[in-house]
Amino acid sequence: MNQTPPPANAAASGAIAPDTGKPGFGIYLHWPFCAAKCPYCDFNSHVRHAGIDQQAYVSAFTREIAAMRAISGPRVVTSMFFGGGTPSLMSPDTVAAILDAVREAWMVPEGIEITLEANPSSVEAGRFRGYREAGVNRVSMGVQALNDPDLKRLGRLHDRADALKAIGLAREIFPRMSFDLIYARPDQTARAWAAELEEAISLAADHLSLYQLTIEEGTPFYGLHKAGKLIVPDGDLSAHLYELTHQVCEGHGMPAYEVSNHARPGAESRHNLTYWRYGDYAGIGPGAHGRLLTPAGKIATATERNPEKWLELVALSGHGMVETSELTASEQADELLLMGLRLREGINLKRWSALAGRTLDAERTGFLISHGMIEQMTPDRIRCTPEGMLVLDAVVADLAF
Questions:
Q1: Hey, which of 20-24, 121-125, 155-159 has the most confident mean pLDDT?
Q2: pLDDT score of 13
Q3: Residue 240 C-beta-side C-alpha neighbours within 13 Å
Q4: DSSP 45
Q5: Residue 209's closest CA among 158, 245, 173?
Q6: Is the pTM of this model over 0.90?
Q7: Of residues 365, 343, 363, 347, the one with CA closest to residue 355
Q8: Terminus-to-terminus CA distance in the chain, angstroms?
Q9: How far is it, in rounded angstroms, from Cα 247 to Cα 177?
C-alpha cells in the first residue's frame, strides 16, 4: 500500500492549517442507500428492501477509484468522507475494502481525517468498532432533533434514547465526533431551540452541524407546505433562530467557522474545508460529484445517480461518470467565491483574481462594505459579516457580476 509518514499538520496534531491557497485533495465516497427516505430529504438516497449486494458495490467502487486515479494522476490524499444515504448501513468489511482500494490508488498518509456518516437507528457498537478498525477516525451523526415528537415529524427512524446511545458510543469509540441538528422546524420557538442547543453542546465533543430546515421541491414536505399543511417559521423568526444559534455556540467556545458548522478551534472538518477552500476532490459512487485538476485544466465530474444503473455503467466502462466538463477560469472563480464566502476566514483576493483574470469591482465591493455585508480583513482577504451571511447568495451574486 502507498503510505507516507504523517504530515506535520495531520489530524492527530489537532491543528488546522491556515488557508494557503492549497486546500488539499479529498476523496468523497457516496453510499446511496437508506433504511427509509426522510420527508424533507432531496439527497441522492434510495431504499432497497430486498437487500444490497455489498460485494458487488465493493468491486464497482474499486473500479471507479482506479478510473478516477487515471484522471487525477498521483496525489496525496488529505481526507476521506463516506457520505450518503446512510453509510452506517455498510458492513465494516465493505468500508475496509473501499479504504484499501483508495490506499492502493493514491498516497494516503497515516492519521488523515476519515469520516463516516451514521444514523442513530443503524448504530451498533460492534459495527462502530469495526469501522474504527478499518481506519475511520471521525463519525458524523444524523441526529436532527433531541425530542421524540420532532423526530417523528421529521420521519426519523430513531428516538431520543437511540440518539443519546449513539452519541455516547461515538464518543467512546472514535477520536472525533460531530452530529447534525435541524432547526426552524414547524412550531419551534426560540426558547425551545436555545434549550435544545444547550443540551446538544453538552453532548457534542467538539463539532456541531446546525442546519435550517429548507423545503425542497420534490419532497413530501414540499407538497405538505404548498397545501398549507406544514407551517415553518417565517423569515423573521428563521433569521432570529440563525442569530441565536451563532450566539449560543459562540458563547460556549464553538464559533461558526462556516455558515452552518460550529467547532472548537482545531476541530473543524478537514474534508469539508477542502470543499469550501475550493480544493480538489474525487467523487466516487452513485450520484457523487467531483472537482479534479488535470493537465487540460480543472474538470467537474458527476456519476450516474441510480445505483443499479451506476453498477451497469461501471461494469461496461470501468466508471459510472455521466458528466465530465472542463471548467473555465471564470467558472472556477465563481465557485471559489460561492464556496469561500461561506467560511468565517473568507477568501484570498489574489487567488480569486488569478482565476478570474480581473479584480473585484471596487464600486460594488465598497457598496457591500458600507452596508455591512462584507468586511476587508487584510488587503488580500475579504469575508462576509454575520449580516451578510443571512443574504449570502445575494452577496455572492453581486460580487461575481
A1: 155-159
A2: 40
A3: 11
A4: -
A5: 245
A6: yes
A7: 347
A8: 47
A9: 22
Write the burial class of residue 353 (CB in 10 Å: 0-12 exposed, 13-18 middle, 19+ buried).
Answer: middle
Is 80 exceeded by the pLDDT of residue 16? no
- Of 219, 200, 201, the closest CA to residue 41 belongs to 219
Partner residues linked to 27 by β-bridges: 80, 282
| Closest to 337 (Cα-Cα) out of 387, 382, 298 | 382
**Amino acid found at 181:** L
* C-beta separation of 304 from 314 below 8 A: no
DSSP string, 213-253: ----TTSHHHHHHHTTS-----HHHHHHHHHHHHHHHHHTT
Grid cell for residue 370: 458600507
Pairing of strands 113-118, 138-144: parallel
What's the CA gap between 319 and 292, in Å, rounded? Answer: 15
Distances (CA, A) of 173 to 15, 100, 159, 257, 296: 21, 21, 21, 26, 43
| Predicted confidence (pLDDT) per residue in 126-168, tens digit | 899 999 999 999 999 999 999 999 999 999 999 999 999 999 9
Predicted local distance difference test score (pLDDT) of residue 350: 94
Rg (CA), the chain: 21
